[in-house]
Design brief:
The protein is α/β, with parallel strands linked by helices. The chain folds into five domains: 2-63 and 662-692, no CATH class; 66-168 and 610-655, 3-Layer(aba) Sandwich (Rossmann fold); 174-268, Immunoglobulin-like, CATH 2.60.40; 278-317 and 327-512, Class I glutamine amidotransferase (GATase) domain (Rossmann fold), CATH 3.40.50.880; 519-597, Immunoglobulins (Immunoglobulin-like). The chain is 19% helix and 33% strand. The strands form nine sheets. Strands 16-15-17-18-24-23-22-20 form an eight-stranded mixed beta sheet. Strand 22 and strand 23 form a beta hairpin.
Amino acid sequence: MGMMILFDPYLPPMVVAVVAAVLLMITGYAALRGLRGWPYRAVAAMVALVALMRPIWQEETRAPLADIALVVVDQSASQGLADRPAQTEATLAALVAELETKGVEVELRYVADADGNQGTQLLSALSGLAAELPQERIAGSFLLTDGQVHDLDAMLTGVGPVHALITGQADDWDRALQIETAPAYGILGEDVKIALRVSDFGPLPDGVDARQTEVIYSIDGNEPQRAIVPVGQPLELTLNLAHAGRNVVRFEVPVQAGELTPRNNVAYAQVNGVRDRLSVLLVSGEPHMGQRTWRNLLKSDPAVDLVHFTILRPPEKRDNVPVSELSLIAFPTRELFMDQIDDFDLIIFDRYQRRGILPLIYLENVARYVRDGGAVLVAAGPDFAGAGSLYRSPLADILPAEPTARVFEEPYVPHLSRLGARHPVTRGLEAAHLPIAGSDQPWGRWFRQVEVAPNAGDVVLEGVGDAPLLILDRVGEGRVALLASDHAWLWDRGYEGGGPQLELLRRLAHWMMKEPDLEEEALSAEADGREMRITRQTMGAGVASVIVTAPDGEDITVPLHETAEGMFEGSYLAPEDGLYRVSDPNAADLSDIVVGIGPANPREFSEVIATGDLLRPHLEATGGVVFFLRDALPDLRLVPEGRGAVGRGWMGLYARDAFVIQDVRARPLVPVWVYLIAGLAALAAAWLREGRFRGA
């Protein structure tokens, strides 16, 4: 039951204030005039003001509300180590029972690892829970955790003390491997530096070397390498990337006896291998309309260093101009084709024919360059069918087709062959260029093609009468492409709507330089959260499934389905973080790939030793304290708000004494007739004092 006096004025407060001011002025004037009845006038004025304010006697029927205690339970990965789950479960049961015994309601919330490698967001969960409840009923909060909290800036204040109950044991220890810095990209052929640190936490047991340890590392699961690293100090390891594209570098330190977890003994970094700059040698046999197409394509890419060798004055030309008067300098053919040929990533012969400018020994060196891993593209014109054809040189051993000496001079539309619809260089080219509206053909026509007889490689484009137009082949460690026409420039000029000339030549150049995405037989996988999307590219009949090897060594068969010609896809939902290996057991020559699921360096495992040092200063600001469960669960007390909530062996909550009003009864404090009689009596007394009894 609650009782109180309230005021319910008859008039607005501003009007009452004006009336009070007027009455005060009248009373003051009477006092200044020396009227003997001014005190009675003042009493009458007071009675009038009180009557206008209308005092009310209010009685409330109240029902008490139970205090609320917030309990946030840490269920992050580090809290699941050793005996911490059992400690947490036993403590939670005892705490809830004690709170219910004292009539305190419990609001419980469990917190797992936050998304995005943000660690344990325990205090954010506490603040969110408090925001959902009436603040006046919150008596305090409890955190059941190992103390490894990563959102200390979200500490809750103003709603009672916050206590932390810390799990863990005094002799817990752990060794952790962390990657401090790792580049996102690395240049092939150059050193890549990755900075590591091996750290020990907690008291080391006997027999563990505290000064140094071994680190085992490998790229994409290949042959592991070993290094001895100091403990507690940064170390920079130098690596060379195995290939272009994604390289997964795995690091591991041996697990020691008694460690809390081996999860942080392994870390990995994903480094994308890129080429620094691509060196291309373009050899043009003579000036022609398509020469600028090749030059523009290669010069438009800032990552390409182009050396263009054009024969402007062949030896058979007789113009009687002395060599000393020519404005051009001699081209360094020996340096390019003998001394520095291995520095080039691609050599393009554009309508080149033998004229004695490049000796046969130079061309023999080009053939050797291809077998050792180089790339040659031949864009053939009528010259390829004549006596000066490159096929009638040492390059014949590496070229995938022989000219028949016949040249087609008729219109035709290039089209994909059966293999071309599956080959990554030409697959989907139809979508790369939209034909002109109303046209019945997808691409513009060409008007010349050299007839060739393939003896190796894959025919991916066909022309006149389905004759081979573009042939791709592998020779030794290198690659060769033969384009049996010099009319690709018509697409570049937009003739009859043009065609996907830029996309075709770009893909062709990158395939020859061994771009992983354009390999005929390729296996790739991308991680999106815990979902792994697997892609298998093949020139064969099909791929039914692949094998995914989990971090614990278990093999899972993942089915694939065909999404396009030669393209098969599937997905796998990884149950845990770590490194997964994907392989195709039916393709022995195809390298396995390694995919990292989850953060490369989980924040939750960077430090796993239970501690109160992080939370202590923040809890003390709320009146709370840190208790270690390995000692004992402290007693629980309810204390008046504003008093200390911590003592030896006990922790407290504020008794809020909140309530809800069930019924309200109000009545005037004094009847109206009382104000009327009191006011009239005061005025009568003033009149008598000042009039009738002047001599009194």
